[in-house]
C-alpha cells in the first residue's frame, strides 16, 4: 500500500480508536448498573446481561463481517456497521424497559464486532509483516484498554448524572468515531481497489479490463466466503492442538478481564464501602500494567526483527512467543496477589497493585499468541483468528454471569483464586509451543500445509525476476494490477502490466478464504 508513513499511522490510529470505542461501550455500561437495577427492580445478574450480551455479539464478527469485507471492502462495511452500532447505542439511551436495553445491547455488540475483526485487516493491508508489529500492538491493545477505561468513565458519570447520561455519552462517542472514520479511513483491501481501477481503465480505454487477482483466481463469491467462514474455524479449533490450546488460554484471560467488572465492585464497593465513581479507580492498576506492556513491545519488536534477519528474512513463528512466556507467568502472579490482599483490613493499594502484573501479562500474551498463530497458519490465519475470537467472546460473555454467585459462596479470597488457578494451569502452553512448536506443526494438517505453502512460495520468489513496467498508488504489496481481457492494442500510458512479486506480503486476515479450499 503506497501510503506515506504518516498516513498509514493516521489510519492505524483511527482504526485502533474505533476498536477502543467498541470495547469502551462494552464495559462503561457497568457505571449505570446500580441505577438500572433500582429503576427496573431487577437483579444484578439481569443487569450483568447488558455486558454479557454485548460481548456475546462479538462472536458474530469473525463469522459475518469478515467475509462481507472481502466482497464489499473494508470502508463500506465500517460505515454501515459502526453507524448501526451508534444508533443502537442511542436506542439504549431512550429505552423504557430492561428487555429493550438487553436486546439493543446485543445488536450493538454484534454490529460493533466489525472493527474488532476488520481493523486488523486494515493494518495488515498497509504494512508488510516485518513492519506491522508496532501497529498491531496498538490495535490489539485497544480491546483491553477500552474495557478498563469503561468503569473509570461510567462510574463517576453514572453516580452523578444517571445511567442514561452514561449511555448517551457512549452513543455520542461512537457517533463521533463513526463520522471521523467514515471521512478519513480509505478503502485498503487490495482486491477491491484493483477492481475499481480496472473499471476506471475500462471507461478510459473502452476495453474490458479485469484485475490480475480476478484473473488468477475467481473473485470471492459471497456464498463461498460464508461457507468457509462458518465451517473452517471449527475444523481448525478442534483438529489443531495449537489452535485449541492457545484459543482456550486467551479465552480464559479474556473471561477473567470481564469477570473483574463484577469482582471489583464486590471487593471495593460492598466490602470497603466505596462509591461507584471511586470504585472505578480500582482498574488503574490493570491500566498501568497494560501501558507497561505497550512500552515493552518496542524493544521486543527489535528482537523479533533480528531473529528474522538471522533466518534469511523468513519469519519464525516460535520467535513470537518469548513475550507470552513472560506474560503467562505475570498473569497468575497478579491474580493471586489480588486474591490474598483484597481484604478490607489491608491497604487498598496492595490489591490494586496486583492488577499491574495481570494487565502487563494479558497484553503480552495476546499480542504474542495472535502473531504466533498468524505466522504459523499464514494461509489459514483468518479462520484461526476467527476461531480464537469466537471462543474468547463466549468466555467473556459467560464469566461475568458467574461472578456474583461465586463471590457470595466462596468469599472474596477463594473466588478470586479460581481464575488464578486456571491461568496457572495454562502457563506451560507458551513454553510447549516455543520448545516443541515446530515439531507439533509438522504433525498438524493445516499447520503443515501452511508451512509447506510458504516454503514453496519463498523458493519460487527467489527464481522470479521482477519486471516492473508501471505501478498504481492503490496497489498493495503482493498483489497484481489490472490487465485487459482482450488482446493488447495501442493503449494510453495508463495501461498497466503485471508486476510479479518477489516476497510474500499478503494479508493474513483474508488469504485463507481467498486462496485456499477445504
Automatic annotation (TrEMBL):
Quote any Pfam family the record assigns. MFS_1
GO MF, one annotated term: transmembrane transporter activity
> What CDD domains does the record tag this protein with?
MFS_Tpo1_MDR_like (cd17323)
Q: Which organism is it from?
A: Aspergillus brasiliensis
Subcellular location, in the record's words? Cell membrane
State the name under which the record lists this protein. Answer: MFS siderochrome iron transporter 1
Q: What is its main location?
A: membrane
Region Disordered: which residues?
A: 461-497
Give the matching PROSITE patterns: MFS (PS50850)
